[in-house]
Amino acid sequence: MQPDNPYASTRGSITSKQLPAFDEAMIQKYNRSGPRYTSYPTALEFTPIPVDLETKILKNREARAPLSLYFHIPFCRHLCYYCACNKIITKKNSDSGDYLEYLIAEIKLKRRLLTTEGGKNPVVKQLHLGGGTPTFLRDEEMVQLWEFLQTQFEFLPEDEGDYSIEIDPRELSGNTLKVLRDLGFNRISLGVQDLDESVQIAVNRVHSAELIKNVLTEARELGFHSINIDLIYGLPHQTPETLEQTVRRIIEMAPDRLSVFNYAHLPERFKAQRQIKEADLPSPAAKLTMLGNTINTLTEAGYQYIGIDHFAKPDDELAVAQREGKLHRNFQGYTIMGDCDLLGFGVSSISQIANANNRYILQNDTDLQAYQATIDAAQHNLAIMPAVKVIKTSIKDRLREYVIMNLLCHDYIDFKDINQKFGIDAITYFIDEIAQLGAMQEDRLIDMDAAGIRVLPKGRLLGRNVAMVFDEYLDKKHKNRFSKVI
Q1: Closest by Cα among 238, 231, 289, 291 to 261
Q2: Averaged over 34-50, what is the pLDDT?
């Protein structure tokens, strides 16, 4: 029987049925550069924003739509050499206090423009602090930010909302986790990357397994709902054997979710990576072995493969949402809060806002001094707003976004569903894309028929390659801006 939601999984809750078969030959055949699709169109399509447009976008957003808030904290106390982000390395505590003042000023700028029902504060279902290192903020500064937010927004109770923060376990004070939990944070993400000492030294991120274990133990005792750990494969001095040891030790700690990222060595683009010697990096063949071993080890341990490097325990909200056909993807990665407008704050932060006719993606300046100068100027001129770039998505964009995101979240696109939502005949509309997928069908990576396109277990690791076929913007110029899928 066809489920009510065509994207609800027929795999059931048994993790073994979710196994993404690892086929090295197929990966080598199809592996090519492509985006991670945290949005469609991707950030490469940003253009300068016209004056007053951000003001109009915020004023005209659907008042009933809940919000997801994102705060970008750009500071770190240590430079991690694998880093591909625009981070500011500083040990000055005054930096966080100054930056917090700019965040609060930006919140005020945007909040005054948001229309609400009955004069009530806008409802927030999700909040995330990323960076950088969000816990660079002192405990009292985190309390100040949270308490101010309570005056501007209406937050769902913490057992209904999703309130998360990224943590560097090396930088926690003795009371930080308790402060965060008391405020209402219910999910944390720890950057671990690897537990092997030689790898840690090579990437300048040294910490003990005992430290990680202690942080997880304390977080569970405090009642955090979900704990994520980040790992990276392809780092200097890593071998399949050392990474296998790390993965097994992490499994013993039993995080609810894991993100296992592919290290892309691009020193010409990211200055920090110039500290890494290419001779110390594992070979492409070794990386593939690491990936295969990690997938097998995690799935055998009971983790559900979500997609694009992500795993979760079967009872985690992310895994449940995927099986129920309710998983979404945005600039925060996989999420269960797909009905929210995303409102970003801070340097380089991104917002994604819809109204009755259009959807917009906006980005603040990526340079800290320029961002702060804009916020300063806005205090004296209400026409000035923080965003400097924008993408206005068309109905055609939203159609392709719907296809791409369902492939990445649910391994399926349902032609009948697409026809009803967008008033097209999907098979005719995507006839060229369907033709391009012929080779993948022959290789049993996907299955296509009159009902739709399904990514098969053998093809799940290459789901991005399937999605890329539907990306109209992915020309040769853009392909060189991305790392390989695996």
Answers
A1: 231
A2: 93
Greatest distance between any 2 Cα atoms in the chain: 63
What's the whole-number mean pLDDT along residues 286-295? Answer: 92
In the chain, the domains with their CATH numbers are: 15-38+395-479 (1.10.10.920), 44-342 (3.30.750.200)
**Segment among 3-7, 236-240, 307-311 with least mean pLDDT:** 3-7
- Does the model's pTM come out above 0.90? yes
Cα→Cα distances 59→124, 213, 262, 391, Å: 17, 46, 40, 17
Answer whether 400's CB lies under 8 Å from 473's CB.
Answer: no
Token pair 């026409």: residue: 383
Instruction: Report the percent of the chain where pLDDT is more than 70.
Output: 93
Tens of pLDDT, residues 203-232? 999 999 999 999 999 999 999 999 999 999
C-alpha to C-alpha distances, 370 to 8, 47, 96, 269, nearest whole angstrom: 45, 17, 17, 21
The torsion angle over the Cα atoms of residues 282, 313, 325 and 70, rounded to 10 degrees, is: -70
**3 exposure class (CB count in 10 Å sphere: 0-12, 13-18, 19+):** exposed
Mean residue pLDDT across the chain: 91
CA proximity to 197, closest of 182, 208, 187: 208
pLDDT > 70? residue 65:
yes
Q: Residue 160 — pLDDT band, cuts 50, 70, 90?
A: very high
Is the CB of residue 265 less than 8 Å from the CB of residue 203?
Answer: no
In this predicted structure, the answer to whether residue 19 has a pLDDT above a threshold of 70 is no
**Contact residues for 15 (Cβ-Cβ < 8 A; gap 6+):** 299, 302, 303, 304, 314
pLDDT tier at 84, thresholds 50, 70, 90: confident
* C-alpha dist (Å) from residue 169 to 185, 219, 327, 444: 16, 11, 29, 43
Residues with Cβ within 8 Å of residue 439, at least 6 apart in sequence = none
Pick from 184, 173, 95: nearest CA to 131? 95
Asked whether the predicted pLDDT for residue 478 surpasses 80, the reply is no
- Cα 103 to Cα 110, 336, 366: the distances in Å are 11, 26, 14
Structure tokens at 183: 């405020």
- What is the C-alpha separation between 93 and 215, in angstroms, rounded? 23
What does each C-alpha distance from 452 to 9, 148, 263, 341 come to in angstroms? 14, 48, 34, 29
**Who's near 449: CB < 8 A, 6+ residues apart?**
none
Burial of 64 per CB tally in 10 Å (0-12, 13-18, 19+): exposed
